[in-house]
Write a structure and sequence with these properties.
Chain lengths: 174, 678
């Protein structure tokens, strides 16, 4: 698995200050994708154990982080490895809050409970789902590119068997 | 036959004439853009800007040649000390002030051409605030600040409410009664009973109350909008400058005071005419535990609003009333003892003569020491020694401190002997506390002593790099050495305050015109030294360099201990990249962390780009993400902050060194790539 971007502190991929990791490789090939070069699975740098531990240590040392965001590419094309990385991270940061971006829909991922994709899904707290659709592009949307994409609370949605949308923290300005 | 030899009086006069002629030519023919752009707030290419430059450049030349003490002039030439606002040195102008708006508004004042009565409405009160700012700024060369505008203006919201309520009572209660033939008891309400927080009033006269409440809200918002517009449009200072105004608020918990803040922030978020971000006034939200820091506290909602406003408009900044350095003088119930700033960062609270409050005094002047030069002379940077010569460094530092102080004391003598009439509005109206008791020809000395004389510094980072090969964020030992240097300077200021019986304080200089001058001279003398003189500017005060990659939390915790030492003021910044207006939670968390770490004064920088075609605001790369127009087709306005003040279109108004500094800023969080997943 390669990564094509790591931002120790980002405000752009989810609420609060988050560490963001972009995993290389995607087969959705959405028209108008903002980073088509990341479709290539060999793009970027190898995400080996040393690099993983390095990033985990940085996250653990940062008192301001609200969590981690996995983006890409699409992490679900490297689901097993991404899930293993989250397990490794939680050994050091048990309460790590995770957002995941994907071109799949929640329903597609939730449909196969014994799959590697499902294992990655259930390790996240918020899913930004759906392909990027150029015709539905809207720059005013929060944390996503086109209006078909949704922000979904994963544990609640899995438990109830229906999509529960994420809402921003109460009491904060919109 | 006569012969003119070098350095004979005749030759000296000839030189002087040539120098003066060159000064004029450079300005008239726009030959020296660096001089013209020294101050981002002044349009140096304009007629009035050039007129002002003619005055100030000659005044500087005169001061250096005929007024400055020899050792100070030598230190300027030696590039170790910088005398700020040298053009005002010879005439004795003072720097900045916190204005007692409560007193001026309550008693009325005279502008010199006419007398103004105490206002009867918030609309008039806010109009007078702008006039007072404008009158006062002509009496000095630096910033003008309102340290408690919420408390100062609350009574006038009350007066508006009173006016509207009486009207409402007449039309809605009495008229209604007459129409329905209801027996009407004549209403005898004393003025004191009529205020927004009187629940009884609301119950007994619901129509009048509701009318008055709505009218007052609307009026306060309109008044705020016109105040902010006024403060951005009165180019009344020499050279067409807009006065450097600041307003502090946050702690007034009355409905009237809260409405002032709410309206000011709403007006700020709405922006100027076409929705632009207001450059002035600098706004500062005063954070205080128990008042506005936790859910349930009376002004917590306004703190959250301040966060929202700052994500959109870069202001307000955040002042930390709970930091120990500020708590020391805090008297609950007396807002004049609450820490506030002169916007850019200047802090004036303590007074050895007992005026331990803010309004009615200010900073008198400050001189800045070039720590980098001292570091180069005694460090490893030039490859002449293996270890830093700390003894030599401190000896040279003490000399520089002595010289900087000598300059301040000398200048103070000039300032002190000025008659009250020289500062006009400031003394006559008692803006400077007690000035109204002076006759026009009385000397101001006894009053000026309450102000502060400050020694500033620049370039701790490059100084450490020059001394030890690493700056204070790169090595823990070096970090402690940096702290020791600043502590040494503070101890010096404290000792000299005792010795000279004056308020001498240590300042984390906001170095606008200065950021490139020191560097240029040092680079000329020593060449390009990596990490020291190889950029166009020196790092501000004790800041971790803008080009150094670190996390927001680490930058904050590294800089926080320096705030405690800089009793003349300091600020810390975090750079955020990305559209922070959609992620206020990240913003709030960083502010809260800075306050918790006892940073005294804090702000977050983030880019605000504006497409002048469709009005989209956020981050704009080569083309507008909203309308798609390219930068080559439409003007993209790019707003940035420099030494505490915002400036629109930094590429045309900033000087070279500041442009370079903005380019080099490492964002502590985020990246400009917008997520448009998959």
């Amino acid at each position: 698995m390669n990564i094509c971007g790591y931002y120790p502190e980002s405000i752009n991929e989810g609420e609060g200050l988050r560490s963001s990791i972009f995993l290389s490789g995607c087969k959705h090939y959405c028209k108008g994708c903002f980073s088509a070069r990341t479709w290539n699975f060999d793009y970027g740098e190898p995400f080996d154990k040393n690099r993983q531990l390095e990033i985990i240590a940085e996250m653990a040392a940062n008192p301001l982080l609200d969590g981690l965001t996995l983006a890409g590419g699409d992490p679900f094309f490297s689901a097993a490895e991404a899930a293993a990385f989250l397990d490794l991270a939680r050994e050091k940061i048990p309460e790590l809050h995770v957002w995941i971006y994907t071109g799949y829909t929640f329903e597609q991922l939730a449909a196969k409970p014994d799959s590697a994709e499902y294992e990655l899904l259930r390790r996240g707290q918020v899913l930004v789902d759906g392909r990027f659709v150029q015709e539905l592009r809207d720059v005013s949307l929060l944390y996503r590119g086109s209006s078909n994409q949704r922000l979904i609370r994963i544990p609640e949605s899995l438990e109830r068997g229906e999509v529960i949308l994420w809402e921003r923290t109460v009491g904060l300005p919109v | 036959m006569s012969m003119t030899l070098p350095f004979t009086p005749a030759r000296k006069e000839q030189d002087a004439l040539e120098e003066i002629t060159r000064l004029g030519r450079d300005i008239a023919d726009s030959l020296d853009t660096e001089t013209l752009r020294e101050n981002a707030n002044l349009n140096g290419d304009s007629f009035s800007g050039k007129m002002s430059k003619f005055g100030s450049e000659y005044a500087k030349w005169y001061a250096r040649r005929h007024v400055l003490p020899k050792e100070v002039e030598a230190a300027i030439q030696g590039n170790t000390v910088y005398v700020h606002d040298l053009d005002h040195y010879a005439v004795g102008t003072t720097n900045c002030i916190f204005i007692p708006f409560d007193k001026l508004l309550a008693e009325g004042f005279s502008t010199g051409n006419g007398d103004l009565r105490t206002p009867r409405t918030i609309m008039t009160a806010m109009a007078l605030v702008a006039i007072i700012f404008q009158c006062q700024q002509n009496a000095q060369y630096g910033g003008v600040s309102a340290n408690k505008i919420d408390h100062d203006l609350a009574p006038y919201v009350g007066r508006s409410f009173l006016k509207h309520f009486r009207k409402g009572l007449y039309y809605f209660e009495r008229f209604a009664d007459e129409l329905t033939g209801t027996e009407h008891a004549d209403v005898e309400l004393a003025d004191e009973e009529i205020h927004m927080d009187n629940a009884d009033l609301q119950k007994r006269y619901p129509h009048a109350y509701r009318y008055a409440y709505q009218e007052t809200r609307q009026e306060t918002l309109q008044a705020s909008e016109s105040l902010i517009h006024n403060l951005n449009t009165m180019s009344s200072r020499g050279g067409g400058q807009i006065p450097f105004t600041s307003i502090n608020y946050g702690t007034c918990t009355s409905s009237e005071g809260r409405l002032v803040m709410e309206s000011l922030m709403d007006a700020t978020m709405r922006g100027l005419g076409k929705g632009q971000t207001p450059i002035f006034p600098i706004q500062i939200f005063k954070c205080k535990k128990g008042i506005n820091q936790q859910p349930g506290e009376p002004n917590y909602d306004l703190f959250i609003k301040a966060i929202e406003c700052s994500t959109k408009r870069l202001y307000p900044n955040f002042a930390n009333l709970d930091a120990p350095i500020n708590m020391e003088y805090y008297v609950p119930g007396n807002p004049d003892t609450e820490f506030a700033t002169m916007g850019c960062r200047t802090r004036v609270i303590a007074d050895r003569f007992g005026r331990n409050h803010l309004s009615g005094k200010g900073n008198l002047s400050f001189n800045t020491i070039n720590l980098v030069k001292l570091g180069i002379e005694h460090g490893v940077a030039l490859g002449q020694r293996k270890w830093a010569d700390e003894e030599g460094f401190y000896q040279m530092l003490d000399e520089a401190l002595d010289t900087a102080l000598a300059g301040l004391l000398h200048r103070y003598q000039i300032q002190a002997k000025q008659p009250a009439k020289a500062s006009d509005f400031m003394m006559r109206e008692g803006v400077w506390e007690g000035g109204d008791a002076l006759g026009p020809d009385d000397r101001v000395e006894d009053l000026l002593k309450h102000g502060s004389l400050s020694i500033g510094f620049i370039g701790i980072a490059e100084s450490m790099k020059a001394l030890y090969g690493k700056h204070h964020a790169e090595d823990e030992d070096v970090y402690h050495k940096a702290l020791a240097v600043v502590r040494h300077m503070r101890n010096y200021c404290d000792a000299m305050s005792e010795k000279h019986n004056l308020n001498i304080t240590l300042f984390a200089t906001p170095a606008e015109g200065l950021s490139g001058k020191f560097t240029k001279n040092d680079a000329r003398e020593y060449g390009s030294i990596p990490g020291v003189t190889d950029r166009e500017y020196y790092t501000n005060s004790f800041h971790v360099p803008v080009y150094y990659q670190t996390t927001a939390a680490r930058k904050i915790s590294l800089e926080a201990p320096f705030h405690e030492l800089c009793n003349a003021g300091a600020i810390s910044y975090i750079e955020l990249d990305g559209n922070v207006r959609s992620n206020p939670e990240a913003f709030r968390k960083i502010v809260a962390y800075a306050l918790e770490q006892n940073v005294s004064y804090f702000s977050i920088n983030h880019p605000i780009d504006r497409c002048t075609s469709c009005g989209y605001e956020g981050i704009i790369g080569e083309s507008c993400p909203s309308c798609g127009k390219k930068e080559t087709e439409v003007h993209i306005s790019r707003l940035r902050r420099v030494t505490g003040y915002l400036t629109g279109d930094y590429q045309t108004r900033f000087n070279g060194a500041k442009q370079a500094e903005v380019r080099d800023r490492v964002k502590h969080a985020g990246h400009t790539q917008q997520p448009q997943p998959h």
